[in-house]
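Fill in residues.
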């Protein structure tokens, strides 16, 4: 019989230990995210997989905010984040710094997530878009590639925080090999 672990048995890092930890060479960019709960959930995902940084862009709200904190559960204290008003400008800046930019979107010539293999030694940024409109077309056009999450049901639409969890987990496992 399996016994659930107590919180004290989970070997959690302190905020200082997290900040001092080697990070996954992965950046998350939130492009005009409306839901504060989605933003908080993305912070928790970033914390879980040692993401290097989160950029909050456009209308995306910033911590500290009660609704973000409700789902982030303190991850905003550990994960490095920065607000940048314009996602396109940020995308161009990161690309000049050698970051490989990936829009997470359904688009022509998109690479399915299960077929995308990150290169060792390369830093990646993944862009997640607005809950209704998705990633801005100009950002999609600026991206080095577009990655699509394969879906097989009737909706072909996932919540942004779910999409982030799927993509970050997938890339984390591939980068850790």
């Amino acid at each position: 019989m399996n016994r659930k672990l107590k919180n004290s048995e989970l070997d959690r890092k302190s905020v200082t230990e997290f900040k001092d930890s080697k990070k996954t060479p992965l950046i998350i960019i939130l492009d005009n995210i409306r839901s504060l709960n989605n933003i908080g959930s993305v912070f928790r995902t970033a914390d879980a997989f040692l993401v290097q940084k989160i950029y909050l862009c456009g209308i995306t709200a910033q911590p500290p905010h009660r609704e973000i904190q409700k789902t982030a559960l303190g991850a905003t204290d550990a994960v490095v984040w920065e607000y940048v008003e314009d996602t396109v400008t940020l995308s161009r800046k990161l690309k000049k710094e050698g970051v490989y930019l990936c829009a997470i979107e359904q688009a022509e010539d998109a690479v399915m997530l299960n077929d995308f293999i990150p290169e060792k030694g390369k830093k990646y940024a993944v862009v997640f878009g607005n809950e209704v409109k998705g990633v801005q077309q100009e950002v999609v056009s600026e991206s080095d590639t577009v990655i699509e999450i394969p879906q097989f049901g009737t909706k072909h639409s996932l919540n942004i925080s779910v999409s982030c969890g799927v993509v970050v987990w997938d890339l984390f496992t591939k980068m850790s090999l």
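The first strand starts at residue 24 and ends at 31.
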